[in-house]
Amino acid sequence: MKTCIIYHSHSGNTRGVAERVKTACGGELIEIKLKEGHSSPVACFLGLFRLLKHETDPIEPATIDLSAFDCVVIGTPVWARKSTPAISAAVVAMKECSGKRAVLFATCGKAAGETLPLLARSLEARGMTVTGQFVFTSQDLRDDNKVNALAECVNQTGRAL
After folding, report:
1. DSSP code of residue 98
2. In terms of DSSP bridges, do strands 94-95 and 82-83 run parallel, antiparallel, or are they unpaired?
3. For the segment 92-114, what is each residue's pLDDT rounded down to a tens digit?
4. CA 62 to CA 111: how far, in whole Å?
5. β-pair type (59-60, 33-34)
6. Which of 13, 25, 75, 161 is the most exposed place for a label (fewest CB within 10 A)?
């Protein structure tokens, strides 16, 4: 099984989970970065503005070719109970995604709201099958069992292929 881990991280929490999944499962990390290099507060403000207007952020990489991967892990911070505009842009940027299996995770302070169900619907509309969804609150970030459960789901998804 070949896995890629696509993530956007503003504070480093989502990156930390993505790196722990890579350590446990292997695979390739694909960090989604904002094309526009704004300071952290400005990036947050613009991201929230775009989120409320249902717009995406300009990102790098502009295209994400999934043809070489069997399993796709997607990680996002939660902003206003949704995935970031950068992750929404990543979903649009994905090529060769039909028929792929995905595992999702979100990092947040306390509650993820509709983040993962909305993201799952976007992926399913692109022909992907979502096999797992995990929310990491600020307390969960220190819980190895929670990360292990995510890693096990990724491994099981690969074995099911």
Report:
1. T
2. unpaired
3. 999 999 999 999 999 998 888 89
4. 30
5. antiparallel
6. 161
